[in-house]
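ok trying this again, last paste got cut off
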Amino acid sequence: MTTVRPRIAVSSCLLGDPVRFNGGHSRDRFLSGALDPFVDWVRICPEMEAGLGAPRETLRLERSPDGPRLVTRTTGVDLTDRMTALARARSAGLDVDGYVFKSRSPSCGVHGIPLYPEGGGKPVGKRNRGLFAAVVMDSRPELPVEDEGRLNDDLLRESFVERVFAHARLRELLEGGWRPADLVAFHARHKMQILAHDPARYREAGRLVAGAGVRPREELGAAYAAAFRAALATKATVGRNVNVLQHCMGMVELDRARRADLVEVIGSYQAGRVPLSVPATLLRHHARGEPAASYVREQTYFLPFPEELRLRNHVPA
């Protein structure tokens, strides 16, 4: 189910490359440890690719009438045009399923970057993106993006990893010689996963699949991809997860005792007493022994990413 390997762009310092301004790195334990065996990294350091070297002078964003400028902190060299051109070129050729940027970086930060007045002084704002990251994110709005700091949050980490694996499965489908029947099967396997995120977009994607034999193949693929990615970008909720679990439970033959046990466990998840992994694992276990429950067993909802990552083991807030 999750054998596909996502391609994830990453600020290379987060994997231990010595490319920081001080010649060091910012190795992230989750990215370089738990996640590393399951993905293919595309290492990027904009400062190194722009020829700044390491170690180097630190950078900052400065306010200007034309928008933030990226300048060296001490000498005031303006790197905006060079970094913008690099970001546009990188974005155009970036065939990845997600991107993890370095937090608090004036080039790579995705939020909270200070903006200084021209020539120095105290920051006049702290709600900005790094220059390189802003160009990439604006040109690729469908791309799952996070920084390593936000990935310390259990829910954000689970959501990001789920999205990149879903994007990778879709990419694998669309890059192959797929037929309308393959798209129908893909949509069927992802039904519960999409419903947990966005029921309205599930229906939109379903209408596209229903016309799979009529619409031109490339046009259909692009339209379905847009609907699928938008659906997964909507955060799953406890309520929608409960609806999915109950729906799947109705498709599994259970005796009275096992059904009551499963209802109780789903209720415990809904009340915030146990993580999603508990009812999901129990339901998957019951479906494994039921020939009639093959549809449930094949749902990506139950294994949206490798089980070894243990990303569903947090209790919902």
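PB: full thing came through this time. The longest strand covers residues 7-11.
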